[in-house]
Design goal:
Radius of gyration: 33 Å
Strand content: 5-15%
Number of strands: 9
Number of domains: 4
């Protein structure tokens, strides 16, 4: 049986593939049914996740879920709602949601609060157009300057009732009556819907039920826009930057190892080289919608080839790169779970690249040119993701991971039937598990519930893609080094049956020590003979001089039989093994 010669780029590619396969996945989750049993001791969230996943599995088989599945779901959801309503240890976010559902004044307040930040920005922009301090300085001292100064101060103090009174006073002031443009602008501001909403929001804030609603929200964390919220945001940003630096460092180590594998001992330039770029922004020239897609990638491994792709545009720069691996840094598993849909849309966006075009991407390291063909080849199926994407984290692996993700949990609790069930409990009215059957039907039928139905599958997928930064570095450190460099120095013959080089290639002592672990050499002589075998084998695949008990993959160097890549060379007595 004849075997094809290996391509010169196969080794680093196979090294990367082997590393992605071998790196420890400490965040990985098993199938839910294998670890969760529906017992009374199981948590409500666990039982809900199990019921949802059983329903998903039934639908995937083309079957209707069993009635017992529905009962498990409604019973677990009822229990989850009861737990969330507890005064001690309950869920303040759900309790706030229920208060809004039950109370008109709280609903009005919540609706106004949702637009308040936008309204404040509009008022600030308007008052700056009228009374910015720089404009005030151009006015003579007097009533007009004082009035504008007071208006500006009240607006930025967000004292909306007093601000409205000051606007009216300025309109009524005879000292300002001569300026028609100013009068018109002040009148528009006084009658604006934004100011009226902010004034109403301030008035509602004194209501007792609204104060209770605010207190529940504040138990979740500082109020948006407050100094505490800003400090928390700065801290989270710093935390994210730290994780991104760890991920980038591990990826840089990988790039160095791949570059070592590309070095050639014959003095020729390497056939490829690898680099890492950070904060890679997707250009607008890729012909697809950028809406809700990831358009900035934390860390990216790129490969530069010596020759342009045959279909590259004329005049394209020779220094072009192919995309090899995308790494996203996340401070927690939950952050990655919510990020996955956006990541998938980002991959789909990149895959719309024209294969014949070279695209310019902005990065922290400068502009890089990427071959459109490597982008167009991107896919979002499970196998392709495993080859292309890593989530990198430094959080410890949780001993008891949450099997119901927070977003799905909140969607279940906020369903109208769930809120009605909770209202009945709050009013001490009768509430039966069967009252929650509308949520079950929506879960099975409504498109907007598809993410909840697939929530555990998504959670497993994210965790399969997630690695700890330390584990990635360890996997890189354990990857074949010296053996890989030796293998790349072997050049395939262009003539089948060409004369063999009878001069054995001697290995250094260090190479023998390393390769002995890889190939199972028993002596320096065996190492030298096997190296000669590889050199000769590139021409005619003769392995007559292989050590009698040696069974290894010819490439990638160091891969053992059954590793899933490369060509296996077996002992001479057994002839050639099959192409794996």
């Amino acid at each position: 049986m004849s075997l094809p010669p290996s391509s010169s780029s196969s080794l680093p590619d196979a090294l990367l593939a082997a590393l992605l396969t071998s790196v420890a996945r400490r965040y990985r989750l098993p199938a839910l049914a294998a670890v969760c049993v529906p017992t009374e001791q199981a948590s409500a969230a666990t039982l809900l996740a199990l019921a949802i996943d059983e329903a998903r599995d039934a639908i995937a088989r083309g079957e209707a879920p069993e009635p017992s599945n529905a009962r498990l779901f409604t019973g677990a959801l009822a229990r989850l709602i009861r737990e969330a309503l507890r005064e001690k240890g309950g869920d303040p976010m759900f309790q706030a949601m229920l208060l809004r559902h039950r109370t008109a004044v709280v609903r009005e307040y919540a609706s106004l609060a949702a637009h308040a930040e936008r309204d404040r920005r509009q008022i600030h922009a308007s008052i700056n157009g009228i009374a910015h301090p720089a404009k005030q300085q151009r006015l003579d001292a007097g009533a007009q300057r004082d009035a504008l100064s007071r208006l500006h101060a009240l607006a930025f103090a967000e004292a909306w009732a007093q601000f409205g009174d000051a606007l009216q006073a300025a309109l009524d002031a005879p000292e300002l009556a001569h300026d028609a443009a100013l009068q018109r602008n002040l009148a528009q501001l006084l009658g604006s819907a934004e100011l009226q909403r902010l004034q109403r929001l301030d008035a509602l804030a004194t209501d007792q039920q609204v104060r209770g609603y605010q207190a529940l929200w504040e138990r979740q964390g500082p109020r948006p826009g407050s100094s505490s919220a800003l400090a928390r945001g700065v801290s989270a940003k710093q935390r994210g930057a730290e994780v991104e630096a760890l991920a980038s460092d591990a990826l840089e180590t990988l790039a160095r190892r791949l570059n070592e594998a590309c070095q050639r001992q014959d003095g020729e330039p390497p056939f490829a080289s690898y680099c890492v770029v950070n904060s890679m922004r997707v250009p607008a020239t890729i012909p697809a919608s950028h809406e809700r897609a990831k358009t900035e990638w934390d860390a990216v491994l790129l490969r530069r080839t010596r020759a342009l792709p045959p279909n590259a545009l004329a005049g394209a720069a020779a220094d072009t790169w192919d995309l090899c691996l995308l790494v996203e840094a996340k401070a927690s598993v939950d952050a990655a779970t919510t990020d996955l849909p956006r990541l998938l849309r980002g991959l789909t966006l990149l895959a719309h690249a024209d294969p014949a075009t070279v695209y310019s991407f902005q990065t922290q390291q400068g502009t890089v040119q990427l071959n459109g063909a490597s982008l167009a080849a991107l896919r979002t199926d499970e196998a392709a993701l495993a080859r292309t994407v890593l989530y990198c984290c430094d959080a410890p692996a949780d001993t008891a991971p949450r099997v119901l993700n927070p977003a799905s949990r909140m969607q279940l609790l906020s369903a109208p039937a769930s809120l009605e069930f909770a209202s009945a409990l709050a009013d001490e009215r009768a509430a039966a598990d069967a009252d929650l059957e509308p949520v079950w039907r929506e879960l099975l039928e409504a498109p907007r519930w598809r993410a909840v139905l697939n929530q555990y599958v998504t959670l497993r997928q994210v965790r399969d893609l997630m690695v700890h930064a330390d584990d990635l570095r360890d996997a890189v450190a354990a990857a074949p080094g010296a053996g890989a460099r030796v293998a790349t120095s072997v050049r395939p013959s262009t003539q089948p049956g060409a004369a063999m080089d009878t001069q054995p290639k001697r290995l250094s002592d260090t190479q023998v020590q390393v390769e002995s672990k890889i190939y199972g050499y028993r002596s320096r002589e065996e190492a030298d003979r096997f190296m000669q075998c590889l050199r000769d084998g590139e021409a005619n695949w003769c392995v007559a001089d292989c050590p009698p008990q040696t069974v290894v993959d010819a490439y990638p160097a160091g891969a053992r039989k059954g590793a899933g890549a490369g060509i296996t060379i077996g002992p001479p007595s057994g002839g050639f093994d099959k192409d794996e």
